[in-house]
Amino acid sequence: MQPESPSHVGKVPVDEEPVMPYGQEQEAHEPMVTQTLYNTLSEKHEQLNNDYCNLRADFYRLKEENTKLKEELQKSRFSFDTVKSNAVHLLFLTGLTSTIFSWIMGKLNHTVSQHAGSLKIEDHLLLILMKLRLGLSNRDLAYRFSVFESTVSKILRSWLPVMTIVLKSLIKWPSKGAVLKNMPKSFRRHFKRCRCIIDCTEIFVERPSDLTARAQTWSNYKHNNTVKYLVTNHTCRGSFLSFFRLGWQSFGQTNNTRIRVFE
């Protein structure tokens, strides 16, 4: 049997040979890419690149929009930063001007602790002053400042004792001349010798669980559990408190005269 001619070994029929790019030579084991497949992949690549560019543009647009919304939310949020720019609003909420508020803040800044990371130290003082001036409930204040009601209670318990000590020196008993100089005309005409007005006020308290304390704080006048305070209000124009006694248990029939006698 005659062996095949070496010239026929390894030959590939002409119609099965892959199309080689013009001017290029490739090894037989490398995969071949037809022009049609190349064009298809190029179109897909261009489309993906366009999608990427569009998504990138949307990302930066949404990021900028998110930043603007955060700034608007911060401005709309109730805080000292949003109140201080309106002098009338600040005076209504606290009874203080911006200058006096800042002065008091300087006095208390290093003597109290913060209980809410979202609230600045100025917001703490604003919350306290609104509580004292407007008598707002803790739930109302919690809603306004976007904190928990328990946080409001912690702020009140930590600030009020400190304010009592630090600001006590601001309570002054004015001289007779100062009272007469600032006395309203109606008082000057009929009550020229009147220096101050003494009265008692009652503040509602939670109903004590202890029966003795519950009986001691019961007020027949208010029909509730209260604590009485003796206060002195001078007859000056723009009157102010110059004396404030510690709380007195109501004892049901305890009247204002009895408290003044004990004073």
From TrEMBL:
**Record-annotated Transposase Helix-turn-helix domain positions:** 118-168
- Chain coiled-coil ranges: none
Q: Which residues form the DDE Tnp4 domain?
A: 198-232
Cofactors required: a divalent metal cation
Superkingdom of origin organism: Eukaryota
Q: Metal-binding: present as a keyword of the record?
A: yes
GO MF terms held by the record: metal ion binding
The UniProt keywords, alphabetically, are: Metal-binding
What's the protein name? Transposase Helix-turn-helix domain-containing protein
* Annotated source species: Cyprinus carpio
Which PANTHER family does the UniProt entry name for this protein? THAP DOMAIN PROTEIN
Database matches in Pfam families: DDE_Tnp_4, HTH_Tnp_4
